[in-house]
Amino acid sequence: MIALHRSFVTDSPRILVIRNRYIGDTVLAIPFLRNLRRRFPDAVIDVLVEPGAGQILADCPYKNELVVWERPQRVNEVVPGSLANVIATARWLRTKRYDRAYILKRSLSTGLLAWLAGIPHRVGAAKDGRGLLLSRRVPYHKERHEVELSLDLLRADGIEVDDGHNENWVAADAGAKADRLVSGLPLVRPRVFLAPRSTDEERNWPLDRMAEVIRWLIEDRGCEIVLCGAETDLVTHRQLSAALPPPTATHLHDFSRECSLREAAALVSRMDLCVGVDSGLPHVAASFGVPVVTLSGAADPRQWHPWKTQAEVVAAADGSRSMLGITVGQVQAATDRLFAAAGIEAKAQRRGTCGASTSAAACGASTCAAAAIVTRLSRLRRVCNYSGRRCRKRQKQPDERWPAICFVVRRFFVREPSPAPIRA
Q: Each residue of 173-197: pLDDT tens digit?
């Protein structure tokens, strides 16, 4: 009798999703994980991640466990002990008895890892010479977005997928910290998160041009600029601040030393706009639906543009992949277009009217509540007027209770809009 592996006779398999490497790559796995969970609601779904970037999936409800892959540090593209590390990790993964592996990270080492771990059903893109290590090889189309490339693995397995929409989550503690950090920012000035640096030097833009964009956002657009990066970004942040006139620099806020990656993601979710080079946190911003202006150079924008959010991708006008070909004027024009399309200034004004210091969604809820109070107040006013007219016709003293109620509601529950502060 042929013994079938249990992954083919049950809807509760043990599944490993391999999505190691960078923050942006990792957050773009969320649509994949959602569709995988929808197909296997009772499965164990673990995600293999890097020690740092994996935090971005800490609050994702579609996974069971984050499995951290500690890897040797690269030195001049040579990885001493890499094969030994893969073998040791595979030996440990074998004890978990996974039935399926979906390999989102396209590399020879990830294919080898799943094969050595003894996972019988291994699905991945046939790229980088790892086709022989896979049990299901999926064609790789480099012109497709990274999210679609991941969903292609599910399609190849006969799993129906949705529209790939974005989503992300903020834990209560991280959200509370983000709210505390932004509470000191002026309410009616648009809040712009800036991502000025990538770990890939080819994706970085000259700092003098970035500083000019910051100055323009603060002085001409009336924005507050928020920075929040890793410790390695602090030097860049200090250089940008030093390049600004002192009065302008007071509107540049660096929270890097105060936030973990989860808290930085929560902070990004409280922003009105994100502007930056092609790096991880702009992808995080897109996952929260924050509009994004991204400066694209070495990476193919077809594969790495901000996913499913209002966005502007700025590339060199001469068609090259050089960041030096991107001008300050291009970034300003793209930002102007997104300001208009996303109604960013109007959102900031509503936040000031509400007196709320949290997210735009919270401000919207407060606006609805205020609108309901105003509607009720109008009805009360009509009742008061009608009551007064009837009393005058009957030559009776009008009831003074309704005007008193109207006064109390207006005085204590309806916040009048506050004037916008003068821009620096």
A: 999 999 999 999 999 999 999 999 9
